[in-house]
Amino acid sequence: MDFLRPETLAEALELKASRPDAVPIAGGTDVMVELNYDHRRPAALLDLTRIAELREWTPGLRVGAGVPYVRIIDELGAELPGLAMASRTVGSPQIRNRGTVGGNLGAASPAGDTHPVLLASGAVIEVASVRGTRMIPAADFYLGVKRNALEPDELIVAVHLAPAKGPQQFSKVGTRNAMVIAVCSFAISLFPEENRVGAAVGSAAPTPRRAHQAEEFLASALDFSAPKPLLDSVKREFGELVSQAASPIDDVRGSAAYRKHALAVMARRTLGWAWQELLDGEQQCA
Amino acid sequence: MRVNVTVNGEQRQADDVWEGESLLFMLRERLGLPGSKNACEQGECGSCTVYLDDVPVCACLVAAGQAQDRSVRTVEGLADGDSLDPVQEAFVEAGAVQCGFCTPGLVVQAHDLLDRVPNPSDPEIREALAGNLCRCTGYEKILDAVRLAASRR
Ligand SMILES: Cc1cc2nc3c(=O)[nH]c(=O)nc-3n(C[C@H](O)[C@H](O)[C@H](O)COP(=O)(O)OP(=O)(O)OC[C@H]3O[C@@H](n4cnc5c(N)ncnc54)[C@H](O)[C@@H]3O)c2cc1C
Ligand code: FES
Ligand code: FES
Questions:
Q1: Averaged pLDDT, A5-32
Q2: Which of A45, A94, A97 sits opposite B20 (nearest CB)?
Q3: What is the CATH number of the domain that holds B118?
Q4: Host domain of residue B142
Q5: Binding pocket residue ranges, ligand 3, CB within 6 Å
Q6: Domains of chain A with bracketed CATH
Q7: Where, if anywhere, are coiled coils annotated (chain B) (predicted)?
Q8: Which of B52, B75, B98 is the endpoint of a domain?
Q9: For the whole prediction, is pTM greater than 0.80?
Q10: Buried (b) or exposed (e) across A229-246, using 16+ Cβ within 10 A?
């Protein structure tokens, strides 16, 4: 096995082009488990942790693939509340000190916690190779169970996300607060100025996915210009449509039926919280 | 491969390191530092917690090669000669150690918490230690130890 240690992104892309079999390693919180248990024996490891460009974020917002969760929580909570909420639920402090959004995208597990948020908030994934840069909308990035849109010579460079223009929420079901792979998860983003809603489910289909019908229903049912308290019927219908967007399976973490039920509950609750935040904001303005 | 790394303030060199090996394995088996424990090798238990460039991480999830030119501080590096760190002393006094397997990781993690938050609330202590499992104590004495260490700093 080779251990490749590029210092710059350009060098890393050269290496990945000449060694497409090299497995990138960032925080290592997925890769090292596979190595320790001999589930994977790559021909080479490509260490990305020395590349300063990957560990920066810039206003606007472009978040480097190698920014660890702890920094998203500490530094970007105001601009990216949804992503920060999801980041807080990842693993444990030690995992959050090390794990990255780039690694979550690289692993592309249907249960990865950042995915529903990236989908609901319309994130765009910047990937690069020596051939150039591609901007891939999150909705086109997840192709199958642990499969993403990366070509063998490409690396994930950054995630582009506009600072939140309205309330965002994330919710996850698991057996305890820490150290839990989601049984299922849900993210919602409100875009009041555009009369638009983003909603996406995690761990409830072969890939994380958007709940298009639920999004459209809410956008037509809600009055963003003069928000009034939510009708129970709207919450219920939204929950139903979110649940219908999922195609979960029975597995060790939960049954398909439970996941469908839990998604509807999470959808209703997070909508309630997000809408309340909007109402409270209106009152403060008035 | 060869890995050069600063461990507990000392420049160290490990030879014949396998490229897929963890920092934990290198510390324990090549650098003679068995303080950090290996219990799960999958990031679940926290008994391998060490500082990597001042940030607590699971050493089992860091590739040894990623520690090249970096600085590692293990539980062996907390005491000052024969005098224990206040966190270590508090663990002894509070009876927070039974079999001791989880202790090195908990001590490093609690040490980091008290560096960042000198007077943590109970929820803050619980959150900080959420990635460290103990099969013996039931955690109450561990919480006592962290509160005791905080009161003395
Ligand atoms: C104890 C424990 C608890 C966990 N809890 C959670 C949880 O609650 N929620 C959750 O979502 N995940 C969880 N995980 C999984 C993991 O922590 C996350 O997926 C994390 O985001 C991975 O990031 P990393 O930087 O450590 O990735 P790595 O392990 O370094 O890499 C993961 C994958 O992505 C690839 N990769 C990494 N960076 C790039 C890049 N820039 N370009 C291309 N490919 C890249 C790697 O080749 C690999 O295939 C947990 C893991 C452990 C060990
Ligand atoms: S041995 Fe590293 S977390 Fe358990
Ligand atoms: S004292 Fe035995 S595991 Fe904690």
A1: 98
A2: A45
A3: 1.10.150.120
A4: 86-152
A5: B 97-102, 134-137
A6: 2-43+55-160 (3.30.465.10), 168-285 (3.30.390.50)
A7: none
A8: B75
A9: yes
A10: ebeeebbebbbbbbbebb
